[in-house]
Design a protein that fits this description.
alpha+beta; seven-stranded mixed sheet; three-stranded antiparallel sheet; 16 helices; flat
Length: 630
Amino acid sequence: MLKYEDIKRYLDGNGALPSTLKTLTDGNAMLHPLRSDIANQVAEINSVFGAGYPAFMELNRPQERAAHKKYRKDIFKNTVQPLASRVANQYSQISVVEDYEIEWPAIEADAKRNLKALCESKLFAGDELEDFFWAKWTHNILFDPNAVACIIPIPTQSQTETQQFKAMWIRSANVWQHRKNEFAVLKSEETNPIQDIYTKTSVPGIILYFFDQESYVIAKQISINSQSMTSVWDVSGFQQLATDEGIISTFSAPLHQCEGLPIVTAGYLIEKVSEGGKYEMLSSILTPALPHLKKALQRDEDGEIIALHHSVPREWEYAPKKCGTCQGTGKIVEYDKETDEATEHTCPDCKGVGVRDVRNGLGVYQLSPPTMESYDDQMRVVSLPTPPMGRIDGDTNGMEAFQAAFDKQLTLAYRVLGMEHLNQVPVAQSGIAKAYDSREGEMNLVVAGKHGGEKLEWLFHSIERIVFAASGGVREQLPQIRTPKRFDIEGVETLSKRLQDAIKNGFSAEVIFTLQLKYLEVVAGKDSDEYRMYQLRKKIDPYWSLDFEALNFEQTQCFQFMDRQSEAFQRKNALIELSKNFEMLVQDALATTPNFWQLDTISKRAILVEINSQYMALRTDNFEILPVSM
């Protein structure tokens, strides 16, 4: 049970975060010992995917000017942000694919004790419990894996009242303490408007939630004095009673009945543990990709600087010689022999410029031919070349190198996540490697779905305990969550290549059928006529694996070796004709039977056989079978 002495130690801080050195009555720390590491983790992820200029790029490049550093910040655009959204879209599939299902027991329940109706109501932050969990879970396993979802009971005045509750996701920054399955202190995302007694102004008051395995406490700040730094709190379970002996204080924490903390964390991958596993720091799905993404951003920015310095054409000008009169200073000094004093004047030859004026009134340089330097072997005069002028283009190879480095790091980031199929950059990779990457990404989603389903199941259990435990409980109404065991994360191009290889290499008809069915599912969808027709053919067409030429040969064999007057001859030819005309028969059935796809397989087969009989008129006489080529 929660102790008031422990709760008071948090409240004595006037709503501020306690010191990391303070402890509770049992000697445990008041704050999560890995809390600073968790804060750094969230800050690092936000810096990589945020819109602002990240701190890890605040570097002084060699010989970099202040103007260039400012230019880098001004033009910065986060080019790795799409990776997070693409990965999040993959994990959001867990709750929408066909293999996922919440299976409720088929039990008649009282309207007032119906767990399914309660969990499907909009009491969970405006959503159903299922939507409340999955909508935020997908975001938090990427950006804040130590965030928690909790079901918070609301204290009632009497045991006869229906227990109320509140559902809330709380970011890791507001998780002050979370000792695994033992004790938790959470700062609410909501605030309680209160009055500052000293300044007479309205300020946001904080709300704290305390949990252990049996009980819970809600502490609301109801007033504050900013001068004396004191607060008044409303603490559930705490009462002051007037007696003959004076005012006495009593405390009895209300029970939540959950047999554990009604809290689940978003993440499931453990990055750090403390005190033998009592405290955990969970890792983000994106953590392995962060080093590559940081390098990618740095290479992308370096490419911008290369573009600024090397791809822009530069101007060349001829540098005139220094003025011979003033030696390039633009000034001459004259001495007065009588007074022996020096006076400085502007050079009359260069007019103070310091160089010979070789330009005319149009600003065009006037160059004289270079002087003779020497003679060659044939005694011809060898002169110096004329100095270059005009514009010269820079080298763009540096830009290409940095772009290649950016693409490589981004590809590696997708690869370590098992999500390289999401990367649009074409990379030379063998079919085996692609299959391995695809399998790795698929298993990551399967594992994530398993853990997510278990967390959602615990929230269902917590709701059942909080609301109905006092009246006996409704455990028989608890659902089971079936999470996907396989994900189709291959692109249509990869699937098409596998299908082509299977046909080319002569794989069995069953393998080709399976790949063809999967291809139709991706391209057309399971609800399309094409997919349903292909699937139906496998069920009712005994000759589904034969092409048209093989069917003709099979029919020729019937005429050659079977008794044309027998019933077996008629039935076999009818099946061959059904296989040859299958697509036409299905189209005819769809046109005449609107609910054709909703029928069972036996009824569908009967309809197709009946339509097929209308197109059959086999000859049973002894006409000669001649070989033909088609």
